[in-house]
Amino acid sequence: MNNLYLYIQMKRQKDIIKSINPTYFWDVNAQKLDAFKSKRLIIERVFSLGQLKEVLLLIDFYGEQQIVDTLCQLNYLDKKTLNFVSKLFNVPKEKFKCYTKTPLTRQLWNS
């Protein structure tokens, strides 16, 4: 039973990686991503750059609570993404580290 569970998890993990646009991971080899070890990177990139179907796929795979916990710990989310996830998960912006932490340098493209 344990081996069957591991097999199913590995298959789901490979399916989730294949379902995400690999261009979001321009700086890493997308084929070598591990859905569990690279959870933070995957969630960050899909919520910042992805389409709604990919966002929903991640919610189904990781669960709402893991995604909220991960997003709340990120050092940076653009304003649009922060607003989207705050409304989607009904979490106040003040719970997000990126909202409460002020950047050291001002981002020119947000001015």
Could you explain how this protein is built, in words?
This protein is mainly alpha-helical and 111 residues long. It has one domain (2-20, 32-102). It contains six helices and no strands. The protein has helices at residues 2-18, 39-49, 52-62, 64-73, 79-88, 97-100. Helix 3 (52-62) packs across helix 4 (64-73). The longest helix has 17 residues, at 2-18. The relative contact order is 0.10.
Percent in strands: under 5%
Give the number of domains: 1
CA radius of gyration: 15 Å
Helix run count? 6
The total strand number stands at: 0
Kindly report how far apart the N and C termini lie: 55 Å
- What is the share of helical residues? 55-70%
Mean model confidence by pLDDT: 86
Uncertain residue ranges: none
**What does the oligomeric state look like here?**
single chain
Gross geometry:
globular
Q: State the order of secondary-structure elements, H for helix, E for strand.
A: HHHHHH
Largest sheet: none
Structural class: mainly alpha
